[in-house]
Amino acid sequence: MADRDISGTALDVRLARGRAELLESIDQPPLDLIRERAATRRRRRRAATAGGGVALLLVTLGAGLALRPGVAGDVVPPPVADRAVEPPPGGPVYTGAGITINGLTEPGVAYVPGAIADVEFVDPDHGYVLTLCPATAPCPATVARTADGGLTWQYASLPADSAGRPGLGLAAVADGRLLVTGDGPTYVSTDHGHSWRAIGSGDGTGPVTPTTGDSLRAGPGGGCGYAVELWRPDLPRAGTTPSQPDLDVCWVATAASPDGAWWAGGFHSGRPAVAVTRDLGTTWRTVTLPEAPSPAAGTVEVASLGSHAYAVVLDADRTVRALYHAADGGRTFRRVGAQGGPERLAGAMVPLLDGRLLVTGTDQRWYVSSDDGATFAPAGGSLPDVGRLARTTAGYVAYDLFGTGWAAYSADGATWRKLQIN
Predict the structure, then answer these.
(1) Of 34 and 172, which is predicted with more confidence?
(2) HSE on the CB side for 353, CA within 13 Å?
(3) Nearest to residue 131, comparing CAs of 416, 406, 418, 417?
(4) What is the mean pLDDT of the chain?
(5) Confidence class of residue 203 from pLDDT cuts 50, 70 and 90?
(6) Residue 83 and residue 278: Cα distance in Å, rounded?
(7) How many Å apart are CA 47 and CA 39, to the nearest integer?
(8) Contact 329, 307 (CB under 8 A)
(9) Would you state the pLDDT for residue 90?
(10) Which DSSP letter does residue 62 get?
(11) How far apart, in whole angstroms, are the C-alpha atoms of residue 43 and residue 45?
(12) In sequence order, what are the beta bridge partners of 63?
């Protein structure tokens, strides 16, 4: 009996070890992705069930209920503290090369009409999303707003004549004022996107004196040779800046850098050059880039943080022709190798607080440089595919994550939060 007990115990141990070894040899499924998809499906089923109940209630009550004009799509979130909200535990986390994206969490996703076209954050808490419907199924443009860093959202539709208009863009200008612009009427909101109305705009001609709250934009046109315009919270295209940079302007930054500098890029006497202003276009400093190729068509873009500035010369298809780094705030640039980086740049360059440079390519991959742009390496890890990066008033936005239209926001370019809206 004792022998049988001992041999039985040994057999149990061998079986347990065998099971462990077998389990270790099996590739585990992507549990984070499975949990995320399952949670999304549960939320959609709950939304569908709730929608059916609401429809039945409205039929029962008749036409006695009316929705408030302009906010028919509002989704009212729970109250939040007036501060940046840390991501709740439980959501998937995607990482690579020190870059982190916090995924969706359980509070739910706001599903709005159309697809995300533009995102703007004015601080880490307060942000806005513009969604547009395709021309084949037009609907009024929608702007959603968040006060907790993208966890919960409310939304409202723009006037009906915004339906089907391509090329609309969103700008957060000052004190809760928002603009949606494109060919045709400009829409303004003075209450953080709760309500909208069409307004007139200037013609962008003639220099005007800048005032607090103004921003810079490239005027209309194609190729290069744009005028740099001043936009005001209540008057888009108010006029041109008091002086123009000494170059043929091809690009103007979408937001000022953290030190208040606005950058422009283009060509001076046919050579790639950049210009910067710190007084909203009253004065400019122009720097011609050394050893620079001159593409037949293309642009020059700049990103800066503190004393570090980067300039990139791009062909018309955004092929990287040359990359430059400055360690003195952009006074003198030197050409760097950019070895191992993307062949074509997708969106903005992102200087990180730890001194590295983050970029994305049209191959949908993330790349990081630790030597001021001399060499790059793919970030790898579990980071998802990404469409492009963009500068916003208070940080950066990543578009088309996973290739499925999701967006994420980051205040510093290193830690991102996937926005719970689609």
Answers:
(1) 172
(2) 10
(3) 406
(4) 82
(5) confident
(6) 30
(7) 12
(8) yes
(9) 59
(10) G
(11) 5
(12) none
**Quick one: which of 351, 359, 353 has its CA closest to 330?**
351
Starting at the edge strand that comes first in sequence, how are the strands of the sheet with 154-157 ordered?
115-121, 127-132, 142-146, 154-157
The pLDDT assigned to 49 comes to 39
Distance of alpha carbon 349 from alpha carbon 413, whole angstroms = 10
CA distance 280 to 70: 35
Inter-CA distances, 256 with 197, 277, 305, 351, 391, Å: 27, 10, 11, 14, 9
Per-residue pLDDT for 59 more than 50? no
Q: How confident is the model at residue 45 (pLDDT cuts 50, 70, 90)?
A: very low
pLDDT band at 176 (very low <50, low <70, confident <90, very high): confident
CA distance 366 to 379: 5
Residue 248, CA distances (Å) to 131, 206, 224, 269, 286 in order? 33, 18, 6, 8, 11
What is the CA 16 to chain-centroid distance, rounded?
Answer: 50
Q: Choose between 381 and 6: higher pLDDT.
A: 381
Which pair of tokens denotes residue 199? 């307004």
Q: How far apart are CA 353 and CA 356, in angstroms?
A: 7
Picking from 316, 299, 312, the residue whose alpha carbon sits closest to that of residue 376 is: 312
Neighbours of 31 (CB within 10 A): 9
Q: Of 222, 234, 281, whose CA–CA distance to 253 is shortest?
A: 281
Q: How far is CA 326 from CA 253, 272, 286, 289, 304, in A?
A: 17, 15, 14, 11, 9
Digit-coded pLDDT (tens) for 312-327: 999 999 999 999 999 9
Question: CA 340 to CA 12: how far, in whole Å?
Answer: 53
CA atoms of 411 and 306, how far apart (whole Å): 15
CB-count exposure of residue 420 (10 Å: 0-12, 13-18, 19+): buried
Distances (CA, A) of 304 to 81, 255, 323, 330, 370: 32, 11, 13, 8, 15
Strands laid side by side in the 308-315 sheet? 298-305, 308-315, 320-326, 334-336
pLDDT of residue 81: 30
Distance CA 29, CA 25 (A): 13
Distance CA 127, CA 329 (A): 29
Contact by Cβ (8 Å): 411, 398: no
Query: What size, in residues, is the chain?
Result: 422
Tokens encoding 122: 């004015």
